[in-house]
Amino acid sequence: MPSWPFALLAGAGCALLGLAWAGALSRRRAALDAWARTLMRLEASLAYRPPALADWLLLGVRGETDASVCGVLETAAQRMRQDALLTLSRAAPQPRDLTATDRAALSPLWTGLGAGDEAAQRALLEAVRASLDAQRTQARQAEARDHRLAVSLGVLGALAVFLFLL
């Protein structure tokens, strides 16, 4: 029969693993939602877009609470103000806290933002938002499916502690 410290550690480990897994799924969904909100603000401000791309990026992050989105775009805007010839892809790298497929959905933003007229920018933002919406839907489904599994893992861990301590 295992000792109670081992049972306690095993149960706590299962519970913590379940919590970490559920937290990672929630963070991905929240990051994708933040990027979608930023894209909607950029699209809404397209009609009165400032001539400088840096100022337009700052309009996009105005009011955003997600620090990773704000950090990436504010850093890019700051670098673009210092060197007006920089593009978004040269001013700031894509966020590393997203998965490869999420970054692929956002990659046209990094390559095409600021190039072209208002119609081209609107088409670019709509295309990026459509692919990002597909990623958001997939992330929500994965979160709902895997959240149940993560909670079950945590409950099994707590149950294991209870049974081994009896």
Radius of gyration: 21 Å
> Which H/E pattern describes the elements?
HHHHHH
Strand percent estimate? under 5%
Q: What spatial form do the alpha-carbon principal axes imply?
A: elongated
| Derived structural class | mainly alpha
Number of helices: 6
Termini Cα gap:
11 Å
Main sheet overview: none
Overall strand count:
0
Helix content, binned percent: over 70%
Q: Tell me the count of domains.
A: 1
Regions with pLDDT < 50 over 5+ consecutive residues? Answer: none
Mean pLDDT: 82
Transmembrane segments: 149-165
Pfam families: Spore_III_AB
Keywords: Membrane, Transmembrane, Transmembrane helix
Organism: Candidatus Avichristensenella intestinipullorum
Word description of this protein:
The protein is mainly alpha-helical. It has one domain. 79% of the residues lie in helices and 0% in strands. It is built from six helices and no strands. The termini are close together.
